[in-house]
Design a protein that fits this description.
alpha/beta; N-(1-d-carboxylethyl)-l-norvaline Dehydrogenase, domain 2; 2 domains; 8-stranded mixed sheet; 8 strands; 48% helix; binds nicotinamide-adenine-dinucleotide; oxidoreductase activity, acting on the CH-OH group of donors, NAD or NADP as acceptor; 6PGD_dom2
Length: 314
């Protein structure tokens, strides 16, 4: 099935970035929020992403030219232009923005071939949204970007539950290429294959998008492995085994991590880490027990970068 128009429900952090990703890949996008002010605020977020990416892309060939000339090699104008042509990526901000329209009505999603729900992480909110879009066009694929909620429960609200599945994008999708594709008990092979092949053909501002399949089990792959690692690092700190700096240095220099687990926790947000850990604890029991220090940090509003204090000060 050919997907031309993509609807996105929720214009927050993820919804706006997902809308940007599809516009960047040439799709028409209809982005819906609860009211037009929220939709417009998401649109401003998209403008910012696009302008930042354009600036970074414009700088890339000039940086490469400077890097080569640093070795004492003098490049001709032709050689410089060849580098600009080879590694320069044109980001036409206006053309991409023109592909995105805004709405606060579900009826404007009727022409969409794929709708991605990225509203609040709350089962009742998502169930209600699925009821509200239960009779979208027959062929439309309905996806949720949920990190932890039941797609099987959401899908039971649809006329065609076989068309629904989870597409779990990572923050920020314009730089992180992974999408966990998670079918429900109802999902048809056709919907699954359409989603996997669509994601495989897309790219973000850094590289090609990469789908992986996972079963509908709490945490899927990444959160089930990554969040408990942050939890264990927090326990190490809490029991005085090592300082935050040394824990992060150890994992970067000893295990090749691009970021230490505690720096990463500050970036994700301690509240989000605790929410996911509690989901895992409920699903899998004692061995996923949420670290006490993480709970205390959430109570103290030490949420990481967003409150300018977490494991580190910002
Ligand atoms: N933030 C992340 O790092 C991240 C990563 C992966 C997945 N997710 C998932 O993505 C989803 C969205 O998360 P977020 O961080 O973007 O949240 P957010 O709070 O930034 O945005 C949610 C948006 O949904 C809107 N919304 C709520 N009900 C709506 C409705 N009925 N119709 C239209 N819009 C509605 C809200 O007004 C808000 O703008 C959640 O399910 C979350 O678990 C988040």
């Amino acid at each position: 099935m050919e997907i031309k128009t993509v609807g996105v429900i929720g214009a927050g952090t993820m919804g706006s970035a997902i809308a940007e990703l599809f516009a960047f890949n040439g799709f028409n996008v209809v982005m819906k929020d609860q009211n037009m002010d929220l939709a417009r605020s998401g649109y401003s977020g998209i403008e910012k992403i696009l302008n930042d990416m354009k600036r970074i892309n414009d700088e890339k060939p000039e940086k490469e030219i400077a890097r080569i000339e640093n070795y004492g090699i003098k490049l001709s104008d032709d050689q410089k232009n060849a580098i600009r042509k080879k590694i320069g990526v044109q980001v036409d901000v206006n053309a991409m923005l023109k592909r995105i329209s805004l709405t606060d009505k579900y009826s404007d999603l009727s022409s969409c071939d794929l709708v991605i729900e990225a509203a609040f992480e709350n089962q009742d909110v998502k169930n209600r949204i699925f009821s509200d879009i239960s009779d979208l066009s027959e062929h439309a694929i309905i996806a949720s970007n949920t990190s932890s909620l039941s797609i099987t429960e959401m899908s039971s609200r649809l006329k065609r539950p076989e068309n629904a599945l989870i597409l779990h994008f990572f923050n920020p999708p314009y730089l992180l290429p992974l999408v966990e594709v998670v079918p429900s008990l109802y999902t048809s092979d056709e919907a699954k294959n359409t989603a996997v092949s669509l994601i495989s053909r897309m790219k973000n501002h850094r590289e090609g998008m990469v789908p992986v399949m996972a079963k509908e089990r709490e945490g899927f792959i990444v959160n089930r492995l990554l969040i408990p690692l942050i939890n264990s690092a927090s326990d190490l700190l809490d029991s005085g085994v090592a300082s935050a700096e040394d824990i992060d240095t150890a994992m970067k220099k000893g295990a090749g991590f691009p970021m230490g687990p505690l720096e990463l926790a500050d970036m994700i947000g301690i509240d989000v880490v605790v929410d996911v850990m509690e989901v895992l604890e409920r699903a899998y029991g004692e061995r996923y027990k949420t670290s006490v220090i993480l709970r205390r940090m959430r109570e103290a509003n030490r949420l990481g970068r967003k409150t300018r204090i977490g494991f580190y000060k910002y």
